[in-house]
Amino acid sequence: MAKKFGRVHLIVMDSAGIGEAPDANKFFNHETPDTGSNTIGHISEQVGLDVPNFQKLGLGNITPLKTVAPNDKPLGYSTKLQEVSNGKDTMTGHWEIMGLDIKNPFPVYPDGFPEELLTKIEAFSGRKIMREPNKPYSGTQVLDDFGERQIETGELIIYTSADPVLQIAANEAIIPLDELYKICEYVRDITNIGSEWMLGRIIARPYVGTKAGAFERTPNRRDYALAPFGPTVLNHLDDAGFPVISVGKIHDIYEGQGINKDMGHNLSDMDGVDRMLKAMALPEFNEGLLFVNLVDFDAKYGHRRNPEGYRDAIQDLDGRLPEIMEAMREDDILMITADHGNDPTFVGTDHTREYIPLVTFSKAFKEPKPLPIGHFADISATIADNFDVKAGEIGESFLDELV
């Protein structure tokens, strides 16, 4: 069939969930179930949310939001999507969006990483590893607690979270970036599929500063992810010859598989929007998929339980929507969604098991309306349907609903 849309622009607002999932009681923030979590809803309720452009697209039509009204004549189709996979982390969410069903959750390390793994990293790196931070830790608090010691000793700071990640914090003046990246690549190699310590991501967390309270993480973060367990719709698009362009950490999340052009890592979410706009203007990008991740929502505001900062970040993106929409062609479609929740008003500092929002826009839409509740992978099923390529393992296309 003929394509309805020549280009698809997909933005993931990392962690911007929109209400507890039906199975939220089976997922926990430490000992508290995720029941009652609602990232966007609680931000709207507790600190207010002024997003006139999202309101025009139909964000307020998805679920009641205190400060975002429903729209009788929205510019876009909207709904919320439920996760099928067993997890609430970045990779599980993104992989499911592109058609994979992750049945076995990645292992996590609530008591820290085993001594045997740490000893191997020490032998490879030639640096000692502090044992005290080897546990789930706030990424900023761990710098305040151990950053000065790293300056004095050159030891590595390794910590984790409720997610299946191993994070290495390194002061750029003490441990050069090239060395940090080399260590992370080694850790990736020994924690891959089949390893007894299989991990979803190894994250390089460089920072600068000289004293507690003044340390700042830099944009030189790198994520070393597992390759997806199977082919995704990205692979099917690439195999069919369509451009698949990534912005932000999308390339890392999929280990580059199925992506044939990467616009690089974001210095900030607004820098990510700038990179997106540059990609939209590429003369060779006449059809295909542009896939964008904006991570500050999660990393800077969700995990740090900062609802005001989270609100401001959503409002900043809202302010750029007219610019994005203006850059779209008549047969483009914009989809804005999330990958999990991270309610900044909730207990703990972990992700939350939530529905994700989906709002869409196209200049070709006639009379948009709310869509039925679906699942994460419906996004990729719709994209695959549009470009007449193979769909993923799961997902149902809603392409025919878009008039």
Automatic annotation (TrEMBL):
Positions contributing to Mn(2+) 2 binding: D298, H303, H351
Keyword flag DNA-binding: no
Signal peptide interval: none
Pfam families: Metalloenzyme
Catalytic reaction(s) noted: 2-deoxy-alpha-D-ribose 1-phosphate = 2-deoxy-D-ribose 5-phosphate; alpha-D-ribose 1-phosphate = D-ribose 5-phosphate
Keywords: Cytoplasm, Isomerase, Manganese, Metal-binding
GO cellular component assignments: cytosol
GO annotation terms (biological process): 2-deoxyribose 1-phosphate catabolic process; 5-phosphoribose 1-diphosphate biosynthetic process; metabolic compound salvage; nucleotide metabolic process
Reported cofactor(s): Mn(2+)
GO molecular function, one term: phosphopentomutase activity
Pathway given in the UniProt record: Carbohydrate degradation; 2-deoxy-D-ribose 1-phosphate degradation; D-glyceraldehyde 3-phosphate and acetaldehyde from 2-deoxy-alpha-D-ribose 1-phosphate: step 1/2
CDD domains, A to Z: PPM
Cell compartment(s), UniProt: Cytoplasm
Top-level division of the source organism's lineage: Bacteria
Protein family (similarity comment): Belongs to the phosphopentomutase family.
Protein name per UniProt: Phosphopentomutase
Species of the source: Lactococcus fujiensis JCM 16395
Lineage: Bacteria, Bacillati, Bacillota, Bacilli, Lactobacillales
Gene: deoB
